[in-house]
UniProtKB/TrEMBL annotation:
InterPro entries for the chain: HTH_17 (IPR041657), SinI_DNA-bd (IPR010093), Tn1545/Tn916_Xis (IPR038148)
Lineage, highest ranks first: Bacteria, Bacillati, Bacillota, Bacilli, Bacillales
Domain Helix-turn-helix stretches: 18-66
GO MF, one annotated term: DNA binding
Organism: Alicyclobacillus ferrooxydans
Pfam families on file: HTH_17
NCBIfam families, sorted: excise
Name of protein: Helix-turn-helix domain-containing protein
Length: 78
């Protein structure tokens, strides 16, 4: 794991486990793009047959790591 800071202000109103549709809504992506991300190596999701579960905290950590990887800078969270 990297030494990036963990998300500070995780919105506790967001469920701890998300469906693909819920995760897409939370991060502002379309459902099809979210399904595409679940097939990406390293994306944090759990598959149980056809069901896909995305842990909230792992999703936010993954977003932070992707932002760092793509920009070289950690994102600032309000």
């Amino acid at each position: 794991m990297s030494n990036l800071p963990r998300p500070v202000n995780v919105d506790s109103t967001v469920p701890a486990q998300l469906t693909v549709r819920e995760a897409a809504k939370v991060i502002g992506l379309g459902k099809n793009k979210m399904y595409e991300l679940t097939r990406r190596k390293g994306f944090p999701c759990i598959r149980d047959g056809w069901k896909i579960i995305i842990p909230r905290d792992a999703l936010f950590r993954w977003l932070e790591e992707e932002a760092f990887r793509n920009t070289g800078e950690a994102t600032q969270r309000a």
